[in-house]
Amino acid sequence: MNNTTMNKAVILARGLGTRMRKEDNNATMSKEQAAIADMGIKAMIPIDRPFLDYVMHNLADAGYKHICLVIGPEHDKVREYYGQTLSPTRITIDFAIQEKPLGTADAVAAAEKFSDGDPILVINSDNYYPMESLVGLRELTEPGLAGFDRKSMLAGNIPAERVTKFAVIKTDEHNYMTQIIEKPDEQTLAQLPEPVLLSMNCWRFGPEIFTACKNISPSPRGELELPDAVQYTIDTLKKRYKTVTVKAPVLDLSQRSDIDSVVTTLKGSHVQL
Hints:
Layout: E1 8-12, H1 18-21, H2 31-39, E2 46-47, E3 49-50, H3 51-61, E4 66-71, H4 76-85, E5 92-97, H5 104-109, H6 112-115, E6 120-124, E7 127-128, H7 131-138, E8 144-149, H8 150-153, H9 160-163, E9 168-171, E10 177-181, H10 186-191, E11 197-205, H11 208-215, H12 226-235, E12 242-246, E13 251-252, H13 259-266
Helix pairs in contact: 11-12
C-alpha cells in the first residue's frame, strides 16, 4: 500500500433519497428534474448533465484517477449511464453494490475490494465539495477529514437552520479530531472556539476502516453508522484523524428546494471526465 499518494475516491450513492422524494410545491425544477427526484436518485438530477458528473469532474481536477460508486442493486439508471453511455478519459469508474441500505458504514464496507489496501477518499453523492477539501485530504499522509468552517458554510446554498444541525468537529492543538458531536445544541455551539468546524462526510481512510465497519454494532436506529466505525478505529485501532480546515461552502443537493440554487451555481460549467 502507498500511504502517501491517494488517487482513489469512493462516492456513497446508495441512499434512498427520502428527502428528495418528498413533495415540495415551492421548489423550482423542470419536469425531467422532478421525474428523477421522484426516483430519489439525487446524484442523477440533471443540470444540463447529471449532478454527479460535476462532482467527478472536481475529483479528476484534484488528482483522483479511480472512482467507485457505491449503489444499490436497483440503480440500473446509474449503472447504465456510468458503465455504458459515458466514456471517461480522465478517470475510471467502478461499482460496488450495497445490497441493502444498512447504513453508511455498511456502504463503505462494500468498497473494500476497490480499495485493495490503498487509502481512499469517501464522500457523499449529493454534495459538491470545494477543491481545497479534495486536494487537502489527498495531500495528507495519514487518515483525516475535512472540517468546514461554519461561517463559510452559511454563505453557501444550505439554509442556516439546516447548517446548525450538522455535526461539529472538536480538535486538539495539533488539529487532530478528538470528537464529532452529532446535532449539537445551541449551548454546545456557543462554547466552541472559532472557527467552528462542521463534518460533511468528507474523509480520507486507510484500510483499517474496513475492519471497523465489520466490527461495530447497529446504532439505536438500526444502522451501521460511519461515525461509529471511525470511533472504533480511534478507540480500538489507535488511529488519529488530521483535520483539514476548509473555508469554502459545500454545495448541497439533498432535497427539492436545493435544485434551483444548484442549477444557478453549476449550469454552464465545463465538465470533462
